[in-house]
Design brief:
268 residues, mainly alpha, two-stranded antiparallel ribbon, 9 helices, PAP2/HPO, PAP2/HPO_sf
């Protein structure tokens, strides 16, 4: 007799291909924002000798305590390992229980069958990637529109105060050609609000914390889920503190990024 269970809408070919197209479009937009100069940040002025912008230059991002390659590896690898591991454990412990009674196999189209564990894993990881790309795009949009200046902006800008006529410390400089430093360093120093590292790290932490709370719950003990969730959030918080300590972001940049990343995770 035919099973009364019907395939998940997520796995129907039309919906699956549509969601793949959405992820590909988001990835393309992230590429244009991150690796091209298609979109330039707003040219925001500054006050001569502004103490808030006069911190020493911390150098390239590769010299940071939390290097971009490490952050990207954690953001890409930790969810895969954590979600896949949890789903495998749940499947092994409960594959004979009511959780999978109606989902012994999951149909995709008219010919293919997918294990429910694989379906759930891809669903959680797919939503995670969507949120990660969306967070990155929101951050880039905020940075480009505000043109907020980094704490070390004047160190890389190297303005010629004599040519600008900065006899008074409170004089505001709005000329687009006021800087004499490296154009690439200046462009990066104009994109700090909100902090991208703070946003994506807290997004990943909150998403995985909520996943653990929902899927692990009391199965592994009352403290296992909260302890793991707290550890993830604390690591994300340390990422934001490191950005401020290295003079790469202001506190407001970090708090705004964390609020954005956390909001996207909770929404999804």
């Amino acid at each position: 007799s035919s099973s009364p269970w019907k395939p998940s809408r997520w796995w129907r070919p039309g919906m699956l291909y549509f969601q793949v197209v959405i992820l590909a479009a988001l990835l393309m937009l992230v590429y244009y924002c991150e690796f091209t100069d298609t979109f330039a940040p707003a040219q925001r002025g500054f006050v001569c000798g502004d103490p808030a912008l006069s911190r020493p230059d911390p150098g390239p991002e590769q010299h940071s305590r939390l290097q971009p390659v490490v952050l990207c590896s954690v953001l890409g690898g930790l969810p895969v390992v954590l979600i896949s591991g949890v789903e495998v454990i749940i499947f092994l412990l409960q594959h004979n229980s009511h959780l999978y009674d109606a989902e012994k196999v999951v149909m995709m189209g008219d010919c293919c069958y997918v294990n429910p564990m694989v379906r759930r894993t891809f669903q959680f990881l797919g939503v995670y990637l969507f949120g990660l790309f969306a967070t990155d795009i929101f951050v880039n949009a905020g940075q480009l529109m505000t043109g907020s200046l980094a704490p070390h902006f004047l160190a890389v800008c190297r303005p010629n105060y004599t040519a600008l006529g900065c006899q008074e410390a409170a004089q505001f400089v709005s000329q687009s050609d006021a800087c004499t430093g490296d154009p690439e360093d200046i462009a990066r120093a104009r994109k700090t609000f909100p902090s991208k590292e703070a946003a994506v790290s807290l997004y990943a932490a909150v998403y995985l914390a909520m996943y653990l709370t929902a899927c692990v719950g009391p199965r592994a003990g009352r403290l296992t889920g909260p302890v793991l969730s707290l550890a993830l959030v604390c690591l994300a918080g340390l990422t934001g503190i490191n950005r401020v300590a290295e003079y790469r972001n202001h506190w407001t940049d970090v708090l705004a990024g964390q609020a954005l990343g956390g909001a996207v995770a909770v929404f999804l």
